[in-house]
Amino acid sequence: MRSWGVAADSAVLLQPAAAGFRAPSADFRHLASSFCHPDSRPSFSAKKALEEIIYCLIVQKFMEKEIDMIPTVTTSPDPTYQVDSLPNQEHKLESIHSPDALEMIQSHLTLILGERVGGPLNTVVQISKLKLGKLYAASIMYGYFLKRVDERYQLERTMKTLPTKPRGRRIFDELKPNPLWDLESMVQISSDDDDFDGDETKSYRLRSYVMYLDAETLQRYATIRSKESISLIEKQTQALFGRPDIRIADDGSLETPNDEVVGITFSGLTMLVLEAVAFGTFLWEAEGYVESKFHFMSS
User: Fold this and answer.
1) What angle, rounded to 10 degrees, do the helices at 44-64 and 266-294 form?
2) Cα 122–chain centre separation
3) Averaged pLDDT, 74-86
4) Cβ distance 25 to 15 under 8 Å?
5) 124 — phi, psi (to 5°)?
6) Which SS3 state, helix, strand or coil, does residue 265 take?
7) pTM value?
8) 163 CB-contact burial (10 Å; exposed 0-12 / middle 13-18 / buried 19+)
9) Poorest-pLDDT segment among 17-31, 66-80, 130-144
10) Residue 20 and residue 180: Cα distance in Å, rounded?
11) How far apart are CA 135 and CA 280, in angstroms?
């Protein structure tokens, strides 16, 4: 299993907890007290410790689900070399999501693979590591967003507080652009008629619920809450694909002179995206757990 530099003794700071994660030990609570005080600011070492704890919690969730994370992507002079050497784990990766969220993830995959979703998945394609890295990072953010909005949707459905029927509105035009991912393109919304069948009292699916949210709420749900999580996404992506060599040309355009090309099957690409979405899901859970203990995001 790959690592982006988590300290070897970080796992020692975790002890069993009934909440599904391992609870921070007394040593980490002592460390956390140095930056959780309202009048103090997080130090560099404290921020690094937070990242490591969150990462350990994420890796723990993958281990609990018996999911092997994809190793570092490397190139090879062999044109038949493939990065997707792990066994198919699609079922395990899909099982961590609710049926409603899984429906939207399938739409996300369809958007990426197009008509190839129903075609031969063992076809090898050549794609740059930079593009793969962007796709991976964007899919982490999508998984983070999806888990966040799905929790609210499931709660409102359980409490029977869902609005009778969401009215179709063009809310995406009001969202601020994100340099890494396009929320409108990733959230594939069908017409409400597909969800209701003429019965306005019937509970609708998650994809229509997303369409019901106002622009401000949707923007907030699509935003990563902490700098530590943003840094972790960057490090996780770089651990898998390496640090990209990006240069600014004289005309202001971006150049990637050393971008490498790798071969990957559509099946491997599917596994890559599903792992990233799962990572984003676990990131939301781990970030929330650590925040509930130390309130580091209010620092």
Assistant:
1) 130
2) 25
3) 64
4) yes
5) -90, 130
6) strand
7) 0.77
8) exposed
9) 17-31
10) 31
11) 13
